[in-house]
């Protein structure tokens, strides 16, 4: 069973592309960051880009599609977080236009692949009859504050 799952993961296009992106970022971006960014921006980029294939893998290891979809949503969020960090690194001139544009193209391609994988999972409903499979996983709109709440003044001492 576990061997089948690992072999399936190794053939999963979303996971392979995510792992390749992580390798490229580790090789082409992280070593070029200045010393003052190695432990701040560098760690943020490292965590975000490593999270993409890790979450795809974790979802793949689940027994029913809704959990897999949930982990793909997390992977997609980490992918966009990676893009945000790489954009900052590029704007700060830590990466060349060539490297940034190449990584941006890979990120856009991977986002399309993850979206397609999510659509496939929703259609296939793998593990639909597993325990807990009927819990609903969906992206809900964010609740944003439209007004700043009033904070009462602390009581004044006499």
Strand content: under 5%
Provide the CATH architecture: Up-down Bundle
- Using the coordinates shown, work out and report the CATH topology: de novo design (two linked rop proteins)
Question: Number of helix segments?
Answer: 5
Nearest-angstrom radius of gyration?
20 Å
Task: Characterize the structure shown.
Helix 2 packs antiparallel against helix 5, helix 3 runs antiparallel to helix 4 (65-91) and helix 4 (65-91) runs antiparallel to helix 5. The chain has helices at 2-11, 13-28, 41-60, 65-91, 97-124. It has a single domain, classed as 23S rRNA-intervening sequence (de novo design (two linked rop proteins)), CATH 1.20.1440. The protein is 64% helix and 0% strand. The mean pLDDT is 85. It is mainly alpha-helical and 158 residues long.
Characteristic terms for this protein:
158 residues; mainly alpha; de novo design (two linked rop proteins); 5 helices; 64% helix; flat
Q: Which helices and strands occur, and which strands form pairs?
A:
Elements: H1 2-11, H2 13-28, H3 41-60, H4 65-91, H5 97-124
Helix pairs in contact: 2-3, 2-5, 3-4, 4-5
Summarize the structure.
The chain has 158 residues and is mainly alpha-helical.
């Amino acid at each position: 069973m576990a061997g089948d799952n690992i072999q399936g993961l190794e053939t999963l296009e979303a996971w392979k592309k995510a792992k390749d992106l992580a390798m490229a970022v580790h090789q082409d971006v992280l070593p070029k960051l200045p010393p003052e960014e190695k432990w701040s921006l560098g760690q943020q980029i490292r965590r975000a880009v490593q999270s993409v294939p890790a979450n795809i893998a974790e979802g793949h290891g689940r027994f029913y599609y809704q959990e897999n979809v949930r982990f793909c949503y997390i992977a997609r969020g980490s992918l966009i977080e990676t893009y945000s960090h790489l954009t900052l690194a590029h704007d700060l001139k830590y990466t060349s236009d060539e490297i940034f544009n190449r990584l941006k193209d890979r990120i856009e391609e991977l986002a399309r692949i993850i979206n397609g994988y999510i659509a496939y999972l929703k259609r296939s409903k793998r593990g639909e009859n597993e325990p807990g499979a009927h819990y609903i996983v969906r992206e809900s709109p964010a609740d944003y504050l439209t007004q700043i709440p009033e904070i009462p003044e602390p009581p004044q001492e006499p």
